[in-house]
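Now for a sample.
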Amino acid sequence: DAPALRQAEVGIAVSNATDVAKRASSAVLTAEGLGGIVDLVKVGRTIFQRIATWIINKMIRTFKRVTFIVLAFIFTGHYVISAFDMILLLFLSDYVTLSLSTDKVRHSMKPESWDVTGLVKTGALMGIIMVVESFVLLYIGFSIYDLSGNIDQLHTFVFDWLTFSGYFTVLAVRERRHFWDSRPSRPLILSIVANMILVSLISTLGIPGLAPIGIAQILTVIAYALITCLLLNDIVKAFLVGHFGLAL
């Protein structure tokens, strides 16, 4: 059996197979019978969905941050976020991104295949939408809170937007349909809630390198991120994944 298992695309050895057959196979069943093959397929498809979620989320975040910061500097002549704020943003976002590995995911009912074109189009289109939403919020900050006259507070305002919008985007893209169709895992929810509380506190009190802003400004950013990223963008995402054949 060893040569056949080694040549197969996915060679599977049963639990009582010889050691030579197990070493030559790609997977080894630990329980008697062939029922473990079904679990093997389900786990593989679940991992595939988590990888696809990470890719889409990564493309959206990178496109939004880079494009928005560069264009904002061209149009306003100011860096809308400082280097320290960006480092802090990346540090805090890593905990939420890592918790995606524990998220509850439904496996698909059909064989998976990598549709890189669909993933790229979905991430790019949603990234473009979020860049537009970022400029709308920037206009709100300039017109209502007069942040153009206080660059330090502008940095904190944009820092909060990039942080909260990133967290709500994770909740939106983790589900191929609408975000309310499945419940996130507890570690994912706890990491998002903890980070939001921490960001709100340091934005209100201020720390070296991060100027304090008012509670009204923070609530404005949270409400705007909730409406755009978790509601409006979720509708767009559900349409895009269905249009490009990425839905479960």
